[in-house]
Amino acid sequence: MASSLAGQLFRMRNIDRVITSERSQKIRASFLFDGRQAADIDMQTIFDIGCDGLGELRKMNRKFDSFASTLFSPAIKDLDRVLQTREENERLDESIRSFLFLMAPYFLTKPAGKALEWLVRRFRIQEFNARDLLAAILPYHETKAFLTMLTIITFETRDMELFGFLVTQRKARRLLDRGTLMAQCVRDRALMTFVCSSVFRACQMGFEYAGLHAFYAMIFSQYITSLASVGGTDVQFVLPFVLDGLQLDGDAQIAAYMVLGTLATRVTLSADALDKTLCAVAQRRADLRAMTMCVVQLVQTQEAALT
Questions:
Q1: What's the pLDDT tens digit per position in 154-182?
Q2: Using 50, 70 and 90 to split pLDDT, how confident is the model at 287?
């Protein structure tokens, strides 16, 4: 009974949100079109655009095939998510999350833009899936495409403390440069946690790509070098992310070696921390040469902890 009532309240709250949205149909959220122009384009046309984009993405990566029968299926074309149950929306969110992370390497391509336009119109991902959307496209933070998507994202009140600085960026129509992102990460560890967690989630889902690894290595290394000094609490925050990275495979692990090397030049680890780190390095090696260079750097910089 309680569960049923909770479900009804959930749908009522969402219905209020869509009614409010329907009052302003002269302007529609859109990734590809001007808001007023988008308002004149019907759902079927947007669906066709999205399916065309998906078709092109499927030629690039066959993993997109499964979405033809889900998010881009004619059967779901008229689905209104605000009328779905919480459980149905959770399943929908999971499917959208998978698509967004799979789409990430192709974000700057026209096919991806077409597919995203459909998800924006039909499923309002810029509102209901804002966190996953940001997580997927954050490696492109210095591009115009990122800024365009940022201008239509709706942040929930609970997320404003974390993403409020992005509102300032979009109001000024300013690209999010690396320095601004880094300064905010140093100011708010929760943002750095979001960045690293997003990278690891993509890797664990099997949706990693070279640009993601480079982003992780660069952003985390710069975070460490941007700290005025690296103390015990900083090590306690950083090291778990490094150890998690060392458990990944391929280029993701090599990126973790780079981050570890940067950390080693900034601070002398405790004997216990160094022991855990060396064990993590030895347990899994994606690249023998990269691992050897990492171990050599640790020995050279952590001499005090080794004696």
A1: 999 999 999 999 999 999 999 999 999 99
A2: confident
As a whole number, the mean pLDDT across the chain is 89
Residue 71 CA to residue 94 CA, distance in Å, equals 11
Return the pLDDT at 305. 61
Average pLDDT estimate for 196-208: 92
Token pair in block for residue 20: 């409010």
Q: What is the mean pLDDT of residues 216-233?
A: 93
- Cβ count near 91 (within 10 Å): 12
Radius of gyration of the chain (CA): 22
- Tokens found for residue 208: 């990693």
What is the residue whose two structure tokens read 């079927």?
44
Tokens 């990460």: give the residue: 185
The string of DSSP codes covering 54-104 is HHHHHHH-GGGGGGGGTTT-GGGTT--GGGS-HHHHHHHHHHHHHHHHHHG
Q: What is the dihedral of CA 64, 66, 70, 73, to 10 degrees?
A: 80
Distance CA 90, CA 118 (A): 19
Q: How many whole angstroms separate alpha carbon 217 and alpha carbon 203?
A: 14
CB 243 within 8 A of CB 276: yes
Query: What does the buried/exposed string (b/e) look like for 103-136 if buried means 16 or more CB atoms within 10 Å of the residue's CB?
Result: bbbbbebebbbbbbbbbbbbbbbbbbbbbbbbbb
Cα 53 from Cα 122, distance rounded (Å): 15
The pLDDT value recorded for residue 201 is 93
Distance of CA 284 to the CA centre of its chain: 26
Longest dimension (CA), the chain: 72
* C-alpha separations of 26 from 7, 35, 41, 49 in Å: 31, 8, 11, 21
